[in-house]
Amino acid sequence: MPIARICEQCGKEFWVDPSVLTRTNRGRQGRFCSRPCKSIAQAGNIGERFWSHVDKSAGPDTCWPWRGAIGHRGYGVIQVKSKQINAHRLAWELTYSPIPRGLICRHLICDNPPCCNPSHLAVGTHADNGHDKVMHGRSAKGERNGAYTHPERRVHVCGERNGAAKLTEQDVRRIRELVANGAVQRQLAKEFSVSPATICHIIKFSAWKHVI
């Protein structure tokens, strides 16, 4: 026989079959009178849990740092329905509306990854985000380029160790010797299956400089 229940969201009375109120499902079934009520309640629970991890103590115009888990590149992350979401993105959606497919949530004002203050955020394209990166001085150019910040990663494989090399050190020495004895560079290029420019670079030591 159906059992009367009170919807936890709207407060209306509704009837539910006793079979769904098993020990396993108790507390999860029969709580809401409809799917819309269930969705509204779940959204409210997510919002309450989310904002409890955001520090708003410094005021409405300042950064609101995320106090929960931190993920890639310093952005806050939160688990929602077994899915990991960036905290600042959820802050925007809870405050304004869902972000359209293909767009991203950017830190337009503060450029502070953990910040979840909706007034510091904006929705835009990846191109917009790239423009923000330049405006905020985060683009990897000049001295900020990885070639300068991580010189240990600059590995240049030269000579025979380079898989694309057509010559050996012995070939290079032979070419220089032949040119010194009057050989024509274009003929040497054909003989060693390289371009005349390569022969020229070898002679001038602008290529294969490590070979003496």
Helices and strands, in N-to-C order? EEHEEHEEHHHHH
Give start-end ranges of low-pLDDT stretches: none
- The end-to-end distance, rounded to whole angstroms, is 98 Å
Secondary structure: helix percent: 25-40%
Question: Secondary-structure map with pairings?
Answer:
Layout: E1 3-6, E2 13-16, H1 35-51, E3 77-80, E4 83-86, H2 87-95, E5 104-107, E6 121-124, H3 126-135, H4 146-149, H5 169-180, H6 185-192, H7 196-203
Antiparallel strand pairs: 1-2, 3-4, 5-6
Mind explaining what this structure looks like?
This protein is of the alpha+beta class and 212 residues long. The mean pLDDT is 83. It is elongated, with a radius of gyration of 33 Å. It is built from seven helices and six strands; from the N terminus they run ββαββαββααααα. A hairpin with a 6-residue loop joins β1 (3-6) and β2. Among the domains are: 3-33, no CATH class; 159-203, no CATH class. It has a two-stranded antiparallel ribbon. A two-stranded antiparallel ribbon has the order 3-4. The protein is 32% helix and 11% strand.
In short:
With 212 residues, the chain is α+β, with helices and mostly antiparallel strands.
List keywords for this structure.
212 residues; 7 helices; single chain; 6 strands; two-stranded antiparallel ribbon; 32% helix; elongated; alpha+beta
